[in-house]
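Dear colleague,

Following up on Tuesday's group meeting, I ran the structure prediction for the three-component complex that the binding team flagged. I've pasted the input sequences exactly as they went in, so you can double-check that nothing got truncated or mislabelled along the way. The structure tokens for the whole assembly follow below. Feel free to forward this to whoever is handling the docking comparison.

Inputs:
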Amino acid sequence: MKKDYLRPLDFKQGRVDMNHGAGGRAGLQLVEELFARAFDNPALRQGNDGAVLDLPNIPGGHRLVMATDAHVISPLFFPGGDIGCLAVHGTVNDVAMLGATPLYLAASFILEEGFPLADLKRIVESMATASREAGVPIVTGDTKVVERGKGDGVFISTTGIGAVPVGRDIGGANARPGDVVLVSGTLGDHGVAILSLRESLEFETTITSDTAALHTLVAAMLAAVPEGSLRTLRDPTRGGLATTLNEIARQSGVGLLLDEAAIPMQPQVEAACELLGLDPLTIANEGKLVAVVAPEAAGAVLAAMRDHPLGRQAARIGTVQADEHHFVQMATRFGGRRVVDWLSGEPLPRIC
Amino acid sequence: MKYVDEFRDGALARGIADRIAAELQPGRRYSFMEFCGGHTHAIARYGIAELLPPEVRMIHGPGCPVCVLPIGRIDQAIHLALERGAILATYGDTMRVPASNSLSLMKAKARGADIRMVYSATDALALARANPQREVVFLAIGFETTTPPTALVIRQAAKEDLANFSVLSCHVLTPSAITHILESAEVRQYGTVPIDGFIGPAHVSIVIGSAPYQHFAEEYRKPVVIAGFEPLDVVQAIGMLVRQVNAGRAEVENEFIRAVTPEGNVAAQAVVSEVFELRERFEWRGLGEVPYSALKIRPAYARFDAERRFALDYRPVPDHKQCECGAILRGVKRPTDCKLFGTVCTPDNPMGSCMVSSEGACAAHYSYGRFRDIPVVSVPA
Amino acid sequence: MCLALPARVVALLPDDQAQIDLGGVRKTVSVALTPDARVGDYVIVHVGHAIGLIDAAEAERTLALFAEMALTPSEPSA
């Protein structure tokens, strides 16, 4: 008899079952053989339900930033990424959009009974890679299992904390008339990559999701200009650019005027949206950001973005103007003008 | 995108708009109705109204099949899904149309109705094949452009002898709607809605050809210019209409020569007349009952007719008392004339059909153009 | 009312289907309503079906007509 012998998990053929979420040996085995092994870091090695963490020493003091996101995307795997790396990038980005340095992540998983361990391993390893590449460790987590039919394979929720220097105030309420609106690259990539996989919309495209961690891009932008020049940062995820800009307009009590011709977009994204009758400005992005900057700093911020691998196609797309109605207007490529409204719900393909 | 980008050239558009302005007869106003919702959408999306001189006014017509789909038909679709257990397949456009009992197809789905959004009628057929133990009903809406695909699918279903597939036909006809508008009291007798001419639909015309419009030009002495779908096509067509009006002509001209022929797509017309026949009457939301304006499935294909298969009866449901969709669809009123517009009735909470579809006059104006109603002071950067 | 786009026929497939290309995006659609469509032709696609063909010569003619109609700055008004 071997002491403490535990048959290793079968990652090829095995499936998640109710035991894995029951808090007993099976659950612990899943954590040890999969999660802890993949995410491995000093905090996790403490082996407790929570993690004791060190905070960096930022001269002048700092404040804590916390952000959380749930990920329920389907399909789980898509060109350019998967639910795992998306979960890491999404929360890292939420923290970074406040001008904070992301420090640690927590990840909780709701697994559906019957979910293949091979897929789970793939997702977890993708998360581990994303976390390592971003330099933001996953220090604590949780796993639960729900009965077959009560989950969509896997749901992941991530929470991130970061530190922002005292005195830095980056937020949606800071835009002022005269400010410049920048975007870090082509829009609509993620949404189109996902749509191409949806049943009944199937089309072939080489577009891949743009999912990426943007905190180093943000750091480069902040370093290029005096504190206070970067007014707002936001990543246009669900609802796309239209939603993000309308949110900012409303929060800041201003209007915006965009230049359609200046908005970077891949031709295939435009074509796919035309085919389905969707407005590319309402389509999700997972590796892009919108920045509102003081006019005198715009040039320097744009240069810093283009110098960074995630900002090569950064562009100036508009300006902030006084407008008591908070309209986001756009000068169309055609020479006319229209309002860019936000969505009332999901963008639905149309025939008319 | 070839055949798309060249037709969106803004500089050329300004040139044509300048020409239009230069050719206007002094003191004269021009009102043209663009029948097709796709044109309404293009005008709004590209801001074409801004390019045109103020003397040229565009009236938005009822060519939006979602806008003219009466509440009673959505109710039938919801009933089939919620109470008869059918899988209801539909295009995305209809999902949010408000119906009776505060329901819409989307809300019915939240209540457990099996509603599936499809991009094409063939997807509905695929659903039927994949779910042989369930009834699958396809809610077929659209003008003459969308009807041939539905006809093909019904014919295919017959060939495969599918036992669980049917279609709820709400296909409507363009010429009948145009006639109805021209026959309306306001236009014919009182002249309160002076429609000087029509921009004819792009894609409907690919199917039916340019010949059917001859009737309007002759009988009602109104010029018709069939225009392509891109903004340059629309602006060009407006220019052609202005010229006809100035010269006192009332002819059918085809701007969309690259895709529309006088006889249209004969193969498509053939498959439609094999499967469908005229309904004596059909309710159009906002227009009331219009004779010979819609299609039903022929007796030979009766088993694929959802109305017969499920013994459905039709119950008309009136719109909100203050909803002006009817007048707006006939071009008699503008969205801003409606008390509900932008207050109670918004794209988030549509009270009437004009607000539901992004092509509806109210939705298009709200989403793209309402900034024009309110003076906005902009501060240069 | 009818969202339809011109797309190039890249390949003809069995059962009245064809693969089309629009700006680099490819999709399989039905060409049952356009039996004369050949590879290289441009068709107008609506709800997964090609409903008509684009006549290349007429398209060129249309663009020429636009240019003719447009008022150039040096031209006097009519």
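The mean pLDDT of chain C is 89.

Cheers,
M.
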